[in-house]
Amino acid sequence: MPNYYDIYGFSEQRDRKTIETFLSYFSYIEDNENIEKQEIVVYKNEKYNTEETWTQITTLTEVIDFGLQNQNFGFSFYIGENLKQEINHIILTFTFDGKIIFGISVQKDRKANNGKLIDNYDKALEIEKIMVELTNSIKTSIQFEYPPSSDEEEFDRDIEIWRNFNKEKQNKE
C-alpha cells in the first residue's frame, strides 16, 4: 500500500465559490456529485460545545451546504474518485472555528523515467503553491500520513510538529 504526503491549506474562505474552485481544479467535480450511502460525522467537541451528529448525504452539494450552514461544526470529507492526474485524495475539513482546511494527498514516491522510485516531495510543494492561489490559504503544511486539524489552534501546533520534517525535505532538494 502506498504512503502519502498530505498537503493542507488553512483558509478563512469557507464559501461555496472557493470550495468549488478547489474541487474543480483537482477533480472532475461533476463526476463526484452523486454519493451513495455516506454520512457526515461531527464528533462531540467540548471546546466548541457540539454534540455528536450523523447526517446522511447523497450529493457533494449536500456536503458543502452542510459545512456552510453549520459554521461551528467540524468534520472531514474525503474524495478518492474522479481526481485529476497524480492526485490520490481530496480532503475537505470544515473546522469547528468556522474556517476550512483544503487537503490533497499524493503518493510519497513516483517512478522516474529509469523505473526507479524517487521521492515525490516536489509534487507536494507544487500543489502547496497552487492551493494557496486557489483558496487564499493563510497557512500551509505538508505532512506525512497525518489527519487534518480540527481548528486553527490545532493547525498551528501541527505546523510546528512538521516544521523539521519539511526543512529536512527541502534541504534534500
Task: Describe this entry's structure for a reader.
This protein has one domain. It has helices at residues 16-26, 60-69, 121-135, 152-172; strands at residues 4-11, 34-42, 53-59, 75-79, 89-94, 100-107, 109-111, 117-119, 139-144. The chain has a five-stranded antiparallel sheet with strand order 4-5-6-1-9. It has a two-stranded antiparallel sheet with strand order 2-3. It has a two-stranded antiparallel ribbon with strand order 7-8. The protein is globular. The chain is built from four helices and nine strands; from the N terminus they run E-H-E-E-H-E-E-E-E-E-H-E-H. With 173 residues, it is an alpha+beta fold. The longest helix is centred in the C-terminal third of the chain and has 21 residues, at 152-172. The mean pLDDT is 94.
Instruction: Give the strand order, joined by hyphens, for the main sheet.
Output: 4-5-6-1-9
Span of the ends, CA to CA: 25 Å
Share in helix: 25-40%
Instruction: Work out the strand percent.
Output: 25-35%
Stretches where pLDDT is under 50 for at least 5 consecutive residues are: none
Structural domain count: 1
- The string of secondary-structure elements, in order, is EHEEHEEEEEHEH
Q: What's the alpha carbon Rg, rounded to whole Å? A: 16 Å
Instruction: Give the CA-based shape.
Output: globular
Global structural class? alpha+beta
Biggest sheet descriptor: 5 strands, antiparallel
Query: What's the pLDDT, averaged over the residues?
Result: 94
User: Quick one: how many beta strands?
Assistant: 9
Output the number of helix runs: 4
